[in-house]
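User: Structure tokens for this complex, please. No commentary.
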Amino acid sequence: MSRSTRSFLVLLAVATLVLPSAAEDLDELLAQVGEDYAQGYVAPLIHAFGANQNSALYHTANIPNTGFTFSVGIKVMGTNLNEDDQTFRAVMEDVELSNFLPETHPFYDASGDVVMSGPTVFGDDETPGTLTAYAGGLPVYQIETITGLVDTRWVPLAAPQLEVGGIAGLRASLRWLPSMDTGEYGETSYMGFGASWSPNFLLKKPLPVDVMVGFFTQNIDVGDIVETEATSIYLAASRDFGPLTGYAGVAKESSSMKVAYTFDEVGFDPVDVAFEVDGEMENRLTLGATLNAPVKLNAEINVGTLTVFSAGLMFGM
Amino acid sequence: MRKFLLFFIVLLTAGLLLTGCESDSTAPEDELPVLSDEDVATQSGAMAASMTQVFPRIWEPASGKDNGEYEYTFPGGSAVQGTVYSEFRDVEGGDLVDYDVAGWALVLTEDPLSITLLDGGIPWLLGFTITADIDQAADEATATGVGTLVVGDYNAAFTLDAVVVEDGDDYPASGSITFINEGITAVVTFDGDNLVTVTVGEDSWTVDLDDGSIIS
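Assistant:
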């Protein structure tokens, strides 16, 4: 086995192993809070994950019409979160406090406001947040909630990618990982596919740049806790400068994440919680460059609601 | 070669510009519920009631003395918990002296005091720095200073304005405290007894300094 192949397999193993472990930790944290708290807590994860999925879909707009081409490699992405995404505050006004207070509390039958605040899933992993109930504007009850899962402003993702094409200006792409059984948390799976088409081969006089259109859709399920879906439609252009290829593109995209867990906290009956949130990133501008050597190494930046950096390493022709 | 360099410069410049693009925030950051004037009046009354327990430290700082520097810890079971530190000098900026001959005092908290007023409620956190000019002959001290009060998720600030504390009296003789929370200003005016007037705009309430409750 060549050294490059061995390194590729190690990267795949790391990306695969991290997801189930993180899902288990996230499930244990979410079990301590209700749906309203959970939505604020995981909001940065939901939006960054979708933005990551729709990144690094291509590294050139050139699709040769010279016969069958094949390449395989890995793409890595990272969303750089806004500093404010490490904390959150969600407020529910004029609610029945009996949903939050112990039955023996003097204000159990009152109505008031509830303020939930603290670290998000990417916030302080040592200091818990709080849930505070107010009656008549005065705090009557407060509990500690949960800490962040990991204190970071970078949300990473890695994806193995296979591309085949070279006929009639078409290229098909596939992202896939074998399903893994994580035991009580269900199976982890990654599946995505897409296609690009370049009209350059039809033109008698080539354009000054290569252009292509394409789409990609993918699903990542992390056990029974998280199910994600992401779709992108893009238009890209590129031009070769010796060993370098510069490329740029625009895309319309969508993403969503379903989160499901069981809220099971002392003093409350267990409740199955499930909610789905759409990702905020809907458009992006991509700018990147590829070094064409024996392997293709690319780096790009994606700018939209979120800023995503990605890189890729592709082996093949 | 020239085209390659031009492309590289354009790409680098664009990349540098784009890397300055920060992600938008996606986590919710809701505004806190709006407080009513009466809510702020209640909070200021509770603050004033707590400060009434602090003012005697200007005249009787603590049991045991140590060259002008003292500390007083509130007894267990009281609504106010924590420790107050004080120092006494002959004049402001002068030498440390015993409290019974001092002309100037500094009273402050290093860690906020914990105030529990509501049955089943959560403690509020009171912090302050007070200075007082002491007239030993007249048994009067005039205090000024600033402080903060954390009420759940709300952070209030207050200012003492010429609060006169007489030796042996339970309540300030005169002066006022201006208390501000979420843009609402409440003024607590002392008049020597346990009932004080709290004014917010054109509205006023009467607060009992014995327990911080609103009487009317």
